[in-house]
């Protein structure tokens, strides 16, 4: 199946026919982003899914994102074009591991990044995304211990910004972002002295981006630690005509659309998430024709997880 104009027209017709809205994450293939009704980061898509008037949500993203939509709207049909689209970060902590960690820190507030399974969210007090993690942690009584999971680099970023000592961080990581390392970034910074730098906080290099800024080898006002949605806003406000982007390469498509006059370059052009790329034009067509794969979250788990997701949606942006 090719992403032709006929394919796009058929996708839109099928979606309308069954009263479905198509959501696509910023890391999806360009052709999937272009046919979607809404493109955004995890938090924006959660909000859109929760408020959508349609009966069916077709989630072009990875499984935990579709699960989050189902948790928020159990009465809606949530479809993902390929249920094998997982996430190495969400897989880095299980519900059993979280239960054991909680037992070691009785009374701690559990903050989970939205990249977690429904079973982990059911054991969580507040979920967060990369765009509101700092606000979520800042909203918690400073005297309470916080367990932050699963991403160690986002955790380190939140700890640095909030200055919070009683924040314990799980040692998980996303294989795509962990692979964008400090050496590569330093080299790019050195060879592009006038470029601005957008860094996703899941990157293994987020720490070195700040270090470089502090060292003066890369001026602090040129380094921005941002969620994928935050990168779009920053692109519109960028002062330089070149931006180095440290995140999954799917991001470049929306950035180039948002600011066509800017030269966006990937810090690591091999940083591609194989799970995000499982949502192909063929998979999306099959999804709408055959109503699959449907996402199910058992009612008890969804009920236990809902509060933590609703708190995430209510805090920050
Ligand atoms: P955002 O919340 O910034 O969209 O990131 C989601 C994600 O999966 C990052 O790898
Ligand atoms: Fe998960 Fe990483 Fe892929 Fe994002 S880029 S969906 S965190 S594996």
From TrEMBL:
The keyword Iron-sulfur applies. Keywords: 4Fe-4S, Cytoplasm, Iron, Iron-sulfur, Metal-binding, Pyridine nucleotide biosynthesis, Transferase. One of its GO terms (cellular component) is cytosol. Its cofactor is [4Fe-4S] cluster. Binds 1 [4Fe-4S] cluster per subunit. It catalyses: iminosuccinate + dihydroxyacetone phosphate = quinolinate + phosphate + 2 H2O + H(+). It is found in: Cytoplasm. Its EC number is 2.5.1.72. [4Fe-4S] cluster binds at residues 87, 174, 273. Pathway: Cofactor biosynthesis; NAD(+) biosynthesis; quinolinate from iminoaspartate: step 1/1. GO terms for biological process: 'de novo' NAD+ biosynthetic process from L-aspartate. One of its GO terms (molecular function) is metal ion binding. It comes from the Bacteria. InterPro entries: NadA, NadA_sf, Quinolinate_synth_type2. Iminosuccinate binds at residues 25, 42, 113-115, 130, 200-202, 228. Catalyzes the condensation of iminoaspartate with dihydroxyacetone phosphate to form quinolinate. HAMAP family: NadA_type2 (MF_00568). Belongs to the quinolinate synthase family. Type 2 subfamily. This is Quinolinate synthase. The gene is nadA.
């Amino acid at each position: 199946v090719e992403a032709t104009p006929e394919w796009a027209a058929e996708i839109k017709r099928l979606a309308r026919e069954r009263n479905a809205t198509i959501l696509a994450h910023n890391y999806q293939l360009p052709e999937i982003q272009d046919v979607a009704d809404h493109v955004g980061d995890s938090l924006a898509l959660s909000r859109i899914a929760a408020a959508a008037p349609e009966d069916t949500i077709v989630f072009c993203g990875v499984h935990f994102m579709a699960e989050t939509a189902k948790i928020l709207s159990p009465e809606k049909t949530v479809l993902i074009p390929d249920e094998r689209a997982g996430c190495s970060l969400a897989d880095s902590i299980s519900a059993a591991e979280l239960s054991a960690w909680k037992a070691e820190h009785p009374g701690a507030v559990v903050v989970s990044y939205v990249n977690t399974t429904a079973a982990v969210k059911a054991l969580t007090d507040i979920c967060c995304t990369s765009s509101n993690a700092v606000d979520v942690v800042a909203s918690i009584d400073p005297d309470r211990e916080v367990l932050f999971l699963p991403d160690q680099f986002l955790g380190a970023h939140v700890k640095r910004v909030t200055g919070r000592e009683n924040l314990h961080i799980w040692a998980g990581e996303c294989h795509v972002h962990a692979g964008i390392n400090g050496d590569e970034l330093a080299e790019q910074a050195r060879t592009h002295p006038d470029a601005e730098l957008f860094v996703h906080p899941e990157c293994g290099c987020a720490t070195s981006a700040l270090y470089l800024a502090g060292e003066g080898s890369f001026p602090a006002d040129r380094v921005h630690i941002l969620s994928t949605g935050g990168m779009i806003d920053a692109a519109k406000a960028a002062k330089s005509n070149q931006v180095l982007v440290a995140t999954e390469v799917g991001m470049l498509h929306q950035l180039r659309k948002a600011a066509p006059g800017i030269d966006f370059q990937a810090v690591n052009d091999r940083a591609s998430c194989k799970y995000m790329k499982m949502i192909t034009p063929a998979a999306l067509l099959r999804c709408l024709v055959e109503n699959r794969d449907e996402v199910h979250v058992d009612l008890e788990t969804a009920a236990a997880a809902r509060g933590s997701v609703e708190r995430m949606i209510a805090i920050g942006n």
